[in-house]
Amino acid sequence: MSPQQITLSTWQHARGALRNRYLRQGLYDEGTALMSGVIVNLHDAEHTARRRLENRLFRRDTFAFWEQDLIPHNIAESISTHLAAGSVDLLQLARLTMMRISAGIAGIDLGTDPTRFVLLAELMSKLARASSVNHFIGDKQSVINDGNAALATFEAEFFAPARASRLQLLQQVAANELHAAELPKDVLMTLLSNQDNLSIPDETVLREIAYFPWVGSHSTSGAFVNLMDHIFEWLNSHPDSRKELVADIALIQRFGFESLRLHPASPESVRIAVSDTTIEPDVDVSEGSRVVIDMQAANRDPLIFGSDASQFNPYRDIPSDVSPWGLSFGSGFHACIGQELVSGLEQTATDTEVPLTGAIATMAQIVLQHGAIPDPARPAKRDAQSLRQNWLEYPVVFRP
Ligand code: HEM
To answer: How far is ligand 1, taken at its centre, from the CA of residue 66, in Å?
Structure first.
C-alpha cells in the first residue's frame, strides 16, 4: 500500500486515531520553526519523558488554588475598570486573565508593569497564529515571519531574564544556600532542572515556554466566549432561567462541556503514520499516510450523542465511557494537560466535596453576576481569515 490521505469523521475512528501509538503529531508541520521539540509535537519515548516531567506541575491541589483564588482575583481586577465604564470585550477579559495564569505556569515573571503584560499578549497572539498556520487562509509566509519575529522578542524580553534568574536559583541549591523545595513550581524551572538528563536543547526550552502562555490563554478564552454565546442564546429562549443559572455553577459547567463538544478549539487534528498500522476498529493505513481527524464531525456523531448531536443541549445523556466535552481535549497520550484547569472535574452522584468546576464556568458566573448581556450596539465578530472560526471580539454591557 502506498501512503494515502484519509479523513476520519466518526467518533470511534477519531478516538482510535488519537490513541494510536503509530501515528505521530502532524498538525504543526507547517509551523515547525515554532513548534519543533514542543511537547505536543513529540512522539513516543521523547514525549513520554517530557509529559512525565510536566505532569508533576498539573496537580489537583494546584488547579484548586488557581480556580478558587487566582482566577476570581484576576478577573475581579481586570473587570473593575470596565464595570465603571459599563461594558467590556469578553474575549480580551478572558485572554488577560488566562494569560497571567498560563504565563505563571510557564515560568514567565510578569511583574506589575502593565506595559509588559500588553507586550506579552501581543507576542502571544502572533505566536498562536503562526503555530497553527495550516488553518490560516491567506499569506501564510507573512504569518510565519511575524511568528519568528515574535519568538525573538519573547526570548530577549521575557525568556532570557526568567531563565537567568532560575539558573541562579539552581546554583544556590547546588551550593546548599537554598532548599530544592523552595524552587518555583513552573515549567521553565522543571525543564532547567532536568535539562541535562533529558538532553533538551536550549532552543527547545525556549519554544516550550513560548507555547504555554498562548495555548493556555487563547483556547480557553475562545472556549469561554463560545460558552457565553450559548448562555446568551439559552437565556433568550428561556428568559426566566437567568437567576437559576447564575446561581448554579455546576449547571454552568455542564453548559461549558456541551459548548466545548460543539466547538473543539481546532476543528481538525492531523497525524502521520510512522509505520503501517490499523486505526481501531478497522481502518488500515500505510507508513507515511496523513490522517486528518475531523474533530467537529466526531464530536457530533449521532451514534454517540443522539440524533440532535449538532444542537446545544446541556441535559443530553452521554454514554459512560465518553466525556461530555467529546474529544475537544484530545484523548490518549497527548490529551490536554490543562483540561481540569479549564473545565474542572465531572461531578458524580457520590461526590462528597465540592469538585472543581473549572476556569470557564468560574469566569462565566462572575460576568453573569455582574449582569452581562451582549452589547446591542456592537455585535460580536468572528475571524474570517481562520478556518477555526475564532472570535475577534464579543462586547457585552453590564445591566443590573
Ligand atoms: C479550552 C481550552 C483548551 C482546549 C480546548 C485544549 C485542547 C487541547 C487538545 C485537543 C490537545 C491535544 C492535541 C493533540 O492531540 O494533538 C491539547 C494538548 C495540550 N494542552 Fe490543551 N487545551 C486547552 C487549554 C489548555 C491549557 C489551559 C493548558 C495549560 C496551561 C494546555 C496545555 C496543553 C498541553 C501542554 C498539551 C500537550 C500535551 C501533550 O502533548 O502531551 N491546554 N489541548
So the answer is: 17
Residue nearest to atom 20 of ligand 1 (CA): 336
Q: Is residue 302 part of a domain?
A: yes
Q: Which of 106-115, 237-246, 302-311, 312-321 has the lowest mean pLDDT?
A: 106-115
Specify the pLDDT at position 6. Answer: 97
Is residue 142 in some structural domain?
yes
| Cβ density class 115-144: b for 16+ within 10 Å, e for less | eebebbbebbbbbbbbbbbbbbeeeeeebb
pLDDT of residue 346: 83
Domain of 244, in residue numbers: 5-395
State the CATH number of the domain containing residue 390: 1.10.630.10
pLDDT at 112: 81
Going by CA atoms, what residue is nearest to atom 21 of ligand 1? 336
Name the domain count of the chain: 1
Q: Is 114 strand, coil or helix? A: helix
Q: Is residue 400 part of a domain?
A: no
Q: How far apart are the first and last CA of the chain?
A: 65
Set of cell numbers at residue 302: 449521532
Nearest CA to ligand 1 atom 1: 220
